[in-house]
Amino acid sequence: MSTKIIQLDIGRGTQWGTDLAPKVIREICIPSAKAYANKHNYDYELITESRYEKEVGELNFLATRNKHFSFERYLNLDSDHDQIAYIDNDVYISDAAQALPVIEGISASYEPGFTNSRNIFIQENNLDKNHEYINSGVIFSDRHAAKIICSYMIDRAKNKRHAKGKNTDNMMFNEFVLEYPGLFSVADEKWNYMPMLPGSSRGLNANFMHLIGIPGKKLLEQLVKTRMPLKPLLEKITTGEIKLDVS
């Protein structure tokens, strides 16, 4: 079974925060994904050019030019490989991370807690107040499902079919799952661990740790202040040796 890992690093469009975040992403996080792929004999591709501009056209679907580069994840899932793993470039992968599970359909993890995006999604789609919200930072897909979501997202972009309430690629991913529930299964939290967010597990021995958004970048700033090497600290947080207090 052939497996491919893809990541994006197009300009600064897939970066967050100050200069510290891109430095950690490029010197620690991306290399951790490359090492993981090499360890498990997966193909790996770091995408640095926009497929959106070739497949869709002008970057006028999302709020800013840079936000289109995050949308690229869906367009690049389509592959001849049996299974594909998209991993955000601000994800640190543990040295001891397990091999990927066998992938059927599309799989991703829930975002912990009641984030603003989750509340908007529930309200705009008239869902149960406890409906879970999926994070698109790590997406697993088989070949068949990848072709479906790629075509779906290209169609939405070409026809300017925006997400309800908050027009982000993550919101569109959640809307996709509402339209194609039979394709989706929940990935265990250990594949997209966000310990800096309230509601996440504490001390989880995870495979992938996601330095998500502003909370993740604030964590990096706090870790730098310890004057300790960052990679060992990220490894200990990912594997649960260090438990974050986000109460």
Describe the structure.
This protein is α/β, with parallel strands linked by helices and 247 residues long. The protein has a single domain (3-238), classed as Alpha-Beta Complex (Spore Coat Polysaccharide Biosynthesis Protein SpsA, Chain A). Helix content is 37%, strand content 13%. The strands form two sheets. It has a six-stranded mixed β-sheet. A two-stranded antiparallel ribbon has the order 4-8. Helix 1 links the parallel strand 1 (3-8) and strand 2 (43-47). The mean pLDDT is 93.
Topology:
Blueprint: E1 3-8, H1 20-39, E2 43-47, H2 52-55, H3 67-75, E3 83-87, E4 91-93, E5 106-108, H4 116-124, E6 138-142, H5 143-158, H6 169-179, E7 184-186, E8 208-210, H7 213-225, H8 230-238
Parallel strand pairs: 1-2, 1-3, 5-7
Antiparallel strand pairs: 3-6, 4-8, 5-6
In short:
It contains 8 helices and 8 strands.
Features:
247 residues, Spore Coat Polysaccharide Biosynthesis Protein SpsA, Chain A, two-stranded antiparallel ribbon, alpha/beta, single chain, six-stranded mixed β-sheet, 8 helices
- Look at the structure and give the CATH class: Alpha Beta
Percentage of residues assigned to helices? 25-40%
Q: Identify the strand order in the major beta sheet.
A: 2-1-3-6-5-7
State which percent range the strand residues make up: 5-15%
